[in-house]
Amino acid sequence: MWMIKFLALGLLFAVDAAVDKKVVEKAAKEVPVERKISAQANTLADKSAGLAFNLYQTMAKDKKMENILLSPVVVASSLGLVHLAGKDSTAAQAKAVLSVDKLPDDHIHTGLSELLNEVSNSTARNVTWKIGNRLYGPSSISFSDDFVKNSKKHYNYEHSKINFRDKRSALKSINEWAAQTTDSKLPEVTSDLEKTDGALIVNAMFFKPHWDEKFHHKMVDNRGFMVTRSFTVAVPMMHRTGLYNYYEDETNTLQILEMPLAHKLSSMIFIMPFHVEPLERVEKLLTREQVKTWIGKLQKRAVAVSLPKVSMEVSHDLQVRSTIR
């Protein structure tokens, strides 16, 4: 299988900071305008982005991992749930991973809740976004009513008991739930379960962005896509020319392209080397500060874009050892 490593930061860029946009009155009536989020949600957006970059760097070191697809907000929200459920030491660890040690607990949960609702508003952002969150616990434990109420309120989590000892039945139950949650877009969220004596957090997400300026269906053809200098695969390629934010980093021999998604409340950033090469060099450059520098140098210009038309299905196992109260 040819390799793609992709960091889904587009969702975060839309809420990373409040943006001042001038919109004519007519357009304002037809297109949703990005609203300013609260200070705590803005802080959590910043921390979620930092967490995503750190997590990506860690996962990229695994040579067996072919595709990386992360939703920073979903990962941060899962840590928020761990903090909500964990005892003192576990809750403190969750805050440390999120780098929010000094934030009051209620600010963490209300901020993450607001952030999650903002980026997952599929109507305002005109994207196909289907996500389900479920906490599976062994039949031997019971979740407190207060925890169930708050995890539903802040993170929209469902709760179920499951027999982890019956591995086949547990897998079947989890995957059937994932398929139902995503309207069969994700028929299998996991193919294996490790033995666990605690609870299991499962996030099932299907995300399909819609371009602000669509690719014409007739501007698609099959072309060779160079994975390495010696390995090429045939893939359907989409083509269009338009005005986009673009920057060439001649020092690092990279091209940076920003393509807005529908309603321009979110965007997708592409970082591409000048020539075909292994990803390790580019991955080492992917720090929060460097990406901010690139974005700050983007300028509007005419760009001929050719992109592979791909669909990725990825499952990541992020283990957290904790004690649930």
UniProtKB/TrEMBL annotation:
One of its GO terms (biological process) is collagen fibril organization. The keyword Signal applies. Pfam families: Serpin. The keyword Endoplasmic reticulum applies. One of its GO terms (cellular component) is extracellular space. Its main location: endoplasmic reticulum. It is found in: Endoplasmic reticulum lumen. Keywords: Chaperone, Endoplasmic reticulum, Glycoprotein, Signal. One of its GO terms (molecular function) is serine-type endopeptidase inhibitor activity. InterPro entries: Serpin_dom, Serpin_fam, Serpin_sf, Serpin_sf_1, Serpin_sf_2. Residues 1-17 form the signal peptide. Residues 53-323 form the Serpin domain. Belongs to the serpin family. Binds specifically to collagen. Could be involved as a chaperone in the biosynthetic pathway of collagen. PANTHER family: SERINE PROTEASE INHIBITOR, SERPIN (PTHR11461), SERPIN H1 (PTHR11461:SF27). This is Serpin H1. It comes from Engystomops pustulosus.
